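Margin note from the TA: students keep mixing up input and output lines. Inputs are the sequences; the output is the structure of the whole complex. Example:
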Amino acid sequence: MDSHIAAVPLDKAYRLINHGPTILVSAQHNGVQNVMAASWACALDFSPPKLTVVLDKSVKTRELIEQSARFVIQVPTVAQLELTSRVGSLSLYSDPDKLAHCGVNLFEIEGQSLPFVTGCSAWLACTLIPEPHNQTTYDLFIGEVTGAWADTRVFKDGHWQFETADPAWRSLHYIAGGHYYAIGEALDVSENTHS
Amino acid sequence: MDSHIAAVPLDKAYRLINHGPTILVSAQHNGVQNVMAASWACALDFSPPKLTVVLDKSVKTRELIEQSARFVIQVPTVAQLELTSRVGSLSLYSDPDKLAHCGVNLFEIEGQSLPFVTGCSAWLACTLIPEPHNQTTYDLFIGEVTGAWADTRVFKDGHWQFETADPAWRSLHYIAGGHYYAIGEALDVSENTHS
């Protein structure tokens, strides 16, 4: 594991996605690994941390998650803009070499049988909380976060460091039609207002 | 209604929250109106458009939504940073004059019996899709979007205009402890990549 990657305490894991970034979902089962992009992921609880992610019935990653009951939600960076767009467009069903064609490299974290995408800023290892009605009716999946990590060059001491980190580390926020925004300027509310 | 506010076609309503902004939730019942801030709101479907929002059992707005089955999700701006922080901190339970103390002004949209917050950049009128298990177990509420509007000074022709609009219109992305980021620079992926 890259020496810049550090564990994030579970009670602060929600902060990794609280600002609404576009994320990458990865999973593996029986030797098949896949990665997709998704905008519709959201924190659901603080402790134990949970999150929701919407996975269309057409995507291979959904099948891998239904089979393995585990997945990773990770936060891609501006440096990974093309990679993010490609894994969101190509399907493993039509291109068995999708990950290579998208420039995706995976790494392992000890004790986790999950594929982590190299170069992201943060990773949340999740265990599926089976909710068949939500999954079937809404394509809505709930995960409990069992481990969290971040690259200390952009997330340190429980806080994002976008204002001082290299701009290539900024998170991506997708709209539609290949159009994204990067996260921007930091704004702080004084303590007496935010009681 | 302000002349800058225009209806957004329902099939493009998801774009109003696709970039993961912090939002305001408003609702009313029996003459009681309330507004709260939330980070945990997310698109759920394109057509008909649906969304999810997490509402803690302690908040008055949840009670109003359970009673009226309707609510508004709206996107506050950098100009509304203090307002957003205040409605996220004060409770109507402890301060019956919360809205006045937070500087919130409400307006109406014809045909909608809902309270809309003045000065936001976008509004999504929602009807609750009752899912008692999700609501009780996860504080997770699902809404179908029945109407959408945006201020044309920052959202026009189906697209956010953050790159050209006054910076005061940028969306807010909350982390924790009074710390927010504004949305930033636009990034586009070339068409042949984003097939």
